[in-house]
Amino acid sequence: MARRARLTRAFFDRSVHEVAPELIGATLLVDGVGGTIVEVEAYDHEDPAAHGFGGRTARNASMFGPPGLIRALEPTTGIPAMQKRRKMGDVRLLCAGPGRLCEALGITRVHDGLGLDKPPFRLIARPHALQLAIGPRIGITKAMEKPWRYGLAGSRFLSKPFRQTK
Q1: Residues facing residue 135 across a β-bridge
Q2: DSSP 8-state symbol, 93
Q3: What pLDDT score does 45 carry?
């Protein structure tokens, strides 16, 4: 099996709209616990749905730093630790949504603002191109029409299924 490259800060030094879809299929580990990224959303500084739209505050300061876009992943490594943290056994729901993902991976405010290219994080490039699902972001009330949600087509680990397009 070929060794996959670690993603570095240079990977993120591009438009969020280039980075977001390329994260699908990458592996994210936090202190050795994690899995395959299956869903992300993109936001930019001129986006009224972004927490940083109104300007920088103590609460949203990390929105002005390294990108963090991940909504869901398929657990593959350290599943017992994730189940213990989430107090549940259903693997499909362990990391299906940003809050669940953070709890399962042990991500807290201590990690806020840290880059995904440095410990305790390990971000590994996807092994090959994948079929993506693309659609509007979810859980927002502004700029809902923007197709800036990306997922692994057919994954059962998404936070919410993608709407079928005609």
Answers
A1: 149
A2: G
A3: 58
Sorted by sequence, the CB contacts under 8 Å of residue 113 that are 6+ apart come out as 61, 62, 65, 66
Domain residues of the chain, as ranges?
9-42+69-106+116-152
pLDDT given for residue 9 in this prediction: 87
Total residue length of the chain: 166
Architecture of domain 9-42+69-106+116-152: Roll (3.10)
Can you name the residues that pair with 124 across neighbouring β-strands? Answer: 6, 27
Segments in the chain below pLDDT 70: 1-2, 44-68, 164-166
The span from the CA of 72 to the CA of 64, in Å, is: 22
Q: Which helix H or strand E contains 79, and what residues bound it?
A: helix 79-86
Torsion of CA 33, 27, 117, 100, to 10 degrees: -50
Cα 41 from Cα 134, distance rounded (Å): 10
